Amino acid sequence: MSVEQKYRSLKILGIVLVIPIVVMLIQAAYIYSIQAELRENGQITTATITIVSTSRNGTVIRVRYMAEGVTYTNRVRMIHTNTYVGEDIQIYYDANNPNRITLVDRTRAMDTFNNLFILPLILLFAGVTYLISLFFYYRHKIIQSKNQT
Predict the structure, then answer these.
(1) Percent of residues, the chain, with pLDDT higher than 70
(2) Are 1 and 140 in contact (CB under 8 A)?
(3) Rounded to an integer, what is the distance from CA 3 to the centroid of its chain?
(4) Which of 46, 51, 82, 122 has the fewest CB atoms below 10 angstroms from its CB?
């Protein structure tokens, strides 16, 4: 494979690697905006944890709560905590759609800025840095090969 072909392959690889990371960042921004809107305009109620499911990616809890006189069951992702069935926690819910909820205690919520954005940002930075270094390496090789001919 010639240096020019490797250079073209590098451009395609860059696009293939960067697009999913940008999509992850857009998704994280969307989730964050929904949660921020709930924190700003949502109603607060007490929810009771009915199920706790823990994995290495965090904790998913199922909660039962009352909103506008109706009982709802929903799930929320949390950072690993000492959470137990029967524990009462505070949540925000959307009065127009009570199935949209988030935790009041942001230190336990998986929707905080750092939890949503840090991994895609690290991947984006590492990928772009790597691609830039390859770009200049192959560009240098192309210039070098043209100077030799």
Answers:
(1) 83
(2) no
(3) 37
(4) 82
Taking the C-alpha atoms of residue 101 and residue 137, their distance in angstroms, rounded to an integer, is 49
Residues β-bridged to residue 44: 92
| Separation of first and last alpha carbons in the chain | 18
The three state secondary structure string of 62-114 is EEEEEECCEEEEEEEEECCCCCCCCCEEEEEECCCCCCCEEECCCCCECCCHH
Q: Which residues of 42-78 are buried (b: 16+ CB within 10 A; e: fewer)?
A: beebebebeebeeeeebbebbbebebeeeebebebbb
Do 41 and 143 touch, CB atoms closer than 8 A? no
pLDDT tens-digit series, residues 32-48: 788 888 889 999 999 99
Please tell me the distance from the alpha carbon of residue 85 to that of residue 49, in angstroms, as a whole number. 5
The two beta strands, 88-93 and 101-103, are antiparallel
Predicted TM-score (pTM) above 0.70: no
